[in-house]
Design brief:
Two copies of one chain form a homodimer.
Chain A lengths: L6 E5 L3 H13 L6 E6 L3 E3 L4 H6 L8 E3 H4 L5 E5 L2 E5 L4 E4 L3 E3 L2 E4 L3 E3 L11 E2 L3 H20 L10 E4 L3 H21 L8 E4 L11 H13 L2 E4 L4 E4 L3 E4 L4 E4 L2 E4 L3 E3 L1 H5 L4 E2 L2 E3 L12 E3 L4 E2 L13 H20 L13 E4 L5 E5 L3 E4 H20 L1 H7 L6
Parallel strand pairs in A: 1-2, 1-9, 2-5, 9-22, 11-18, 12-13, 12-18, 13-14, 21-23
Antiparallel strand pairs in A: 3-4, 6-7, 7-8, 10-19, 15-16, 16-17, 20-21, 24-25, 25-26
Helix pairs in contact in A: 1-8, 9-10
Chain lengths: 403, 403
């Protein structure tokens, strides 16, 4: 007779999945549990850097981290495969090439674009994966190249529209403001022919941010040639244009990138978990409602801030903090004790605006701008690299180089 | 009363135009003639390097030389403009923005693609200008990027067809053989999914080359994954495929590059000069038939080899040698003496096959291969750079670095 040890399966090696796996390794001795990590690729990527990949300001490989470099694969069973279906009835996960049984399941499968029913959204690019972000960079360059070789090119080919002025939209627009002048030089195209338009349905950019920070970002982007249009609803997306507003104004563009909304990976809804605005409204212990053994983290989860009653934004910082609670709670479920509730410890938020521009708030509302904010942003990025890979990793992949 | 000095107008700053301008500066004192050079861009480019730009193995700027860096613009009136029409009746050249009068005209306006009536040739890319060559590089990368982001991508997107296995076709296929493995690595695509197909209507590649050299090139390219198909006629070009042979086989491909034929810039035919297979059959002094004052050089000219009765191929080496004769003959027409006939001095021909591979013949048929040929190729390239810009230029732009 064989005794079986609890099988923990982690789906997805994003911020939530990779940090949960690392915390589980710390929580358990090798013989106590069997840990399996499933991911489509053999690499983890820094989603928070993908807007830079998409703009072409950093190379793809800067944003990639090999999983075997940061996870002890002698203790973790790493399976490179695609999740097809989660079956909670018999506690199984179907992959493209095999099936896994679990006792505890951690779902960190990330987001896909929320289209809000806008027709034609299949024409939109999204800053979602390494491949899709690189596609944006390549597409923009392709438009510049076509512009230089077509018989009677239209300037519209060079127009780049960013849909959504939330965190990602603003960060991406900021990178474009830096990148476009370089592309203009590379392709011998006058800068004034290229338009960067950022469209937002809300009356302000960066909803939820402090007004001072919003003003700073707006001024910085506008000064560097980003045309920001708030209170503007996108009604339809076409192959080479978008339609906005009640009077259905058509804005032609060679590139349209949608950053306006995310929702949980479709696998989550297909598994039967109830969705709130496209995500799973987890309990304070981060479990799917009605399930003791299924944790849902990161962009798949809707976590309510008890003080405000509003959900937390889906950020890397939150995903990483969720991983701590999730690993602790799995240990508690196996060995007993008290389950932890998730409480967000806001260490500050800094938005990069391209080049040496950034802004944000740290330490309970202390606001920072410009180079100071940029350095803090690098510190935050490097802190994560340190957590995930130790000091050598910060030197290898980090952005802030102390020497 | 003003005395006028002869006005020499050189159209095009390719190999023929730029070297003719340099030779004219040597032949004449500043007060003897007025020299005007007209070119679409403010740069000259190394047409012989464009296949490398197209494959992505060298950067665009390596192939570009600023005209003001190599031509004394205090002595030469440089006009950056586009030639619209040559009017030999009143000895005028119409540019987009002005009109020039000439006493002696030198036409070095280069080639455009000869399509031989193949339908759909507008879908073909050509290795023709800096912009068009970069378009090929960008297009190929775009196909790789799309392949990684489309729902159900077809491997056909990754197929690259090179039409024509003459000098340019073979050199380009060789560069692709080097470039594709790097692209596969960059985009995480297995090499075997990418096809490079070189199609030639003649029964052999490199028609006119020595059989040993042909065999060497064929083996080198085939070994590195180029599928060479000779005796194969292209019947039609579609947006995503070509049709070949009498049984109309369809070969799907994401990229089709035509290197199979060139003819004179259309301006030449429109000016009324009689064309032989798309080029002007100039007299031995390199003048257009029936004109004492119009010289036609480089890819626009059909120059017959008196010994064989066949035309010389349109190469950089011939264009450069023609420039000497042209400049001498203009001086003779102005100051008297005997006009020179053009005689080709074959200094050897070396074809680069990508990476460290090359082959060719030098010194009356002495054959060289591999690294030796590659070095010789660099020596040839650098010799031109030396002629056009002096020793500093060889260090700045040259390929063969002695230290």
């Amino acid at each position: 007779m064989t005794t079986t040890i609890p099988r923990i399966v982690v789906l997805g090696a994003g911020y939530a999945g990779i940090m949960t796996t690392k915390r589980l390794l710390q929580q358990f001795a090798p013989e106590e549990v069997e840990i399996t990590l499933v991911n489509k690729h053999n690499y983890h990527y820094q989603t928070t850097w993908l807007h830079e990949v998409a703009a072409g300001t950093i190379d793809v490989n800067r944003s990639r981290i090999m999983i075997s470099d940061v996870i002890n694969t002698r203790r973790v069973n790493f399976v490179q495969d695609i999740v097809k279906k989660i079956n909670t009835d018999n506690k199984q996960v179907e992959l493209e090439n095999s099936t896994l049984d679990y006792d505890y399941l951690v779902i960190g499968l990330g987001f896909e674009k929320a289209t809000f029913g806008i027709p034609g959204m299949e024409h939109a690019f999204t800053i979602q994966t390494v491949d899709k972000s690189r596609m944006i960079r390549d597409h923009i360059e392709y438009q510049f190249s076509r512009y230089k070789t077509e018989e009677n090119p239209s300037d519209d080919m060079l127009t780049i529209i960013v849909g959504g002025a939330g965190f990602t939209g603003i960060e991406f627009a900021g990178e474009l403001a830096e990148r476009v002048p370089l592309l203009c030089k590379k392709y011998d195209i006058p800068r004034h022919r290229v338009k960067i338009i950022n469209i937002e349905a809300a009356p302000t950019i960066l909803p939820g941010f402090d007004l001072d920070l919003i003003e700073y970002a707006k001024e910085s982007l506008t000064r560097r040639g980003v045309d920001i249009r708030t209170s503007t609803m996108i009604k339809e997306v076409k192959k080479d244009a978008i339609i906005v507003g009640d009077d259905k104004e058509e804005i032609k563009a060679g590139t349209f990138v949608w950053t306006g909304g995310v929702q949980a990976n479709r696998i989550v809804g297909e598994a039967g978990f109830e969705l709130t605005k496209g995500r799973v409204n987890v309990d304070p212990m981060l479990r799917a409602p009605g399930y003791d053994d299924v944790f849902i983290l990161g962009d798949c989860a809707w976590v309510t801030n008890k003080e405000t009653g509003k959900p937390y934004p889906a950020t890397a910082q939150i995903a990483i903090q969720e991983a701590d609670v999730c690993a602790h709670n799995i240990r508690t479920l196996i060995f007993g004790g008290t389950l932890q509730e998730f409480v967000y410890d806001n260490k500050g938020t800094v938005a990069s605006l391209g080049g040496s521009e950034a802004m944000g708030s740290i330490f309970e509302g202390h606001k920072i701008y410009g180079m100071q904010a940029k350095i803090m942003k690098h510190v935050i990025d490097d802190r994560y690299l340190f957590m995930v890979g130790g000091p050598a990793f910060v030197l290898k992949k980090g952005k802030f180089r102390p020497f």
